[in-house]
Amino acid sequence: MLETEVHDLSDDADYAASQQQGSQSIMRTDSGRRSEPDGGEVVYMRDNVSIHPTQYLSERISGRLKLIKQGDTLLMTWIPYKGQNSNARLSERDRNLYTIRPLPFTDVRSIRRHNPPFGWQYVIIVLGSGLAFPPLYFYNGGVKEFLATIKQHVYLVRSADDANVFIVNDFQDPLQKTLSSLELPGVVSIAATSTSGSSVNQEKADGSGYDGIAISQSIGRPRHKFNDPARDLSIQVLEKFSLVTKFARETTSQLFREPSGDHTFFNEGRKQSQTHSAPDTPPRLVSHELQTIEDEIPVPKAPVPADPLEFDKLTLVWGKPRQSPLTREEWVTFLDSEGRVVDSKTLRKRIFYGGVAHELRKEVWPFLLGYYDYNSTYAEREYLRSVKKQDYEIIKLQWQSISPEQAKRFTKFRERKGLIEKDVVRTDRSFSFYDGDDNPNVQLLHDILLTYSFYNFDLGYCQGMSDFLSPILFVMEEDSEAFWCFAALMERLGPNFNRDQSGMHAQLFALSKLVELSDGPLHNYFKQNDCLNYFFCFRWILIQFKRELRYEETMRLWEVLWTHHLTEHLHLYICVAILKKHRSKIIGEQMDFDTLLKFINELSGHIDLDATLRDAEALCICAGETGEACIPPGTPPSLAIENGLLSSQLEDEVL
Question: Which residue stretches does the UniProt record annotate as biased composition, category Polar residues (predicted)?
Fold first, then answer.
């Protein structure tokens, strides 16, 4: 399930600065009142409220939003954090241009709330003159409290035409003000345009139209028939400050589309805006990924519906670049003097973005798999290994002691043993660790799998388990350690091999919902072509892309998945990312199920892992709680990993 770390900004320089200043990350209106030096009373305060000058998440400007009651007047301020500058491209002067100094609500016409199913809530403050501030993103929530506090002190009514628009001090002509407030940021009212346009045009030419406030002007802009929150990003301000290029502006304007009625990420109304774009509009952003099979495909034979997600642009904003693997020098910094992992959350996040150096995997994988407890010491782990080695030998002896006469009367044993013998001789035999005749490592695979079939007799052995054990044995080298790491992994992924396939069906169902959420046209195409069961992704999910990637890439992917950073179900977002990557070919060539299955299988060896992980991360972050709700509770893997799976057994033995 999604962790709260999705919204954790503790690594953000701005937030760190706010912590140094002694601020709290969240302060609700009922947590007490504070006084301002000038006698005002703080009735609402929220940290980590941010604006986005560019399309890059790392270049956001974070600050503190306040509502201040001064006499009978309610004021709003937004002050960027000082002391740290996470946005290297912005000078202190530029940063100050975005500051919202005390703004009385008597000057505010309306507040538009945006509550997209993906990403974070934001609001847009529109002044009576028709000018709009840049959107304020609430990374720690708080929009509901923000509006509720305002309503306590000023006359605030919801627009009859749009439930997300709130009209401030609307005493005279509610209808006119409601209609005009819907044009964002072309929010200049009809009256303002016709009668007072000259006064509006006399706003300061540098864009600081309200007491040094950075606001967007929209004079001379054509009205648009649909609400376009992309234009709510105050593009005019960004142009004046020369903070974004045309490339960045177009990317930004395509990124922040409001969700459409079919529950896809962004409004398909962008087709309309593209149709009427200016001649000098820069070309659409092309994929940043490495060359794939799709580069060589012919021109689609059928029209392909536009991707409502603008996939490549989404990844640029939310997908972080991959890092180098965790090294031994870094690893020891996570351990205290007795061998405990002091910050498992940060460790897992580090591995999520970089993986683990191969020579270190033997030490780190048992933690990720839940075999070792993060709080265990060197001595406790040594004792655990000795105890578990004895347990392993006892279990293995159960099948080794079966005589040929017993085997004749033990049908289940014969069947499982025969299936294991067939599978191990064709598992990764091209890999040096398992190649050659009479390879002892192949025999170890056989023994461990047969032992597991006795350890977990209900589940036994199923085809595909050898694919999971192979890299684990290669890394751990010793049979007992490999066995218990494999057993820990099967605690999570064992449902993949249920006889009734309930575990697989749950994951395929969740995948279908995630595709429907992120790409309605693609999901509808699968539905129209009897592909809605998503069985063409069966192998991907069953053995977690083992057959699609090179051996080293498989190990790198698995250790990323095992971190459970962001979500337990990153593998499903990887499936979505790959399908979206090739949606043009799938839809354009009108693939039926058989053709699609063949195409999916042929992707083996042609998947760019780093790019796909970045895409999947972006999808997961933007999906947020809505994506989480698509995944039924208990969908594999769904087991907590913070404490070792076997630690309780060890405690019983010690006691």
Answer: 17-28
